[in-house]
Design goal:
It is a single chain. Helices cover 8% and strands 29% of the residues. It is mostly beta strands and 89 residues long. The chain has one domain (4-71). The chain is elongated and about 50 Å long. The two termini are 28 Å apart.
């Protein structure tokens, strides 16, 4: 599985971990085959820094990027009655 890391400047909606910090590091992976979101990209928050330089020093192979958040796509799921579990197998 190929993974990569990005360093992203915080935006108002993404400041979950430290509202005063400016730079977040994320690792990007692909959901595994056994996931309901199989094949879709997934980002995992790793760290936060006060400056871009500090983030670059800690994660030298990471790429500086814009906001990489993407809403997971669930269009492939069938609409099922939540009380009907027979379709689960």
């Amino acid at each position: 599985m190929k993974t990569y890391q990005t360093i992203e400047q915080s935006s108002w909606g993404a400041m979950y971990h430290n509202i005063n910090a400016a730079w977040n590091v994320y690792e990007h992976i692909t959901y595994s085959r056994n996931s309901i979101l199989s094949g879709q990209s997934h980002r995992v928050w790793m760290d936060v820094f006060d400056s871009e330089n500090d983030a670059r020093q800690a994660y030298p192979t990471a790429t500086i990027s814009g906001d990489t958040y993407r809403t997971p796509n669930s269009n492939h799921l069938t609409n099922q009655n939540s009380d009907d579990v027979d379709w689960l197998g």
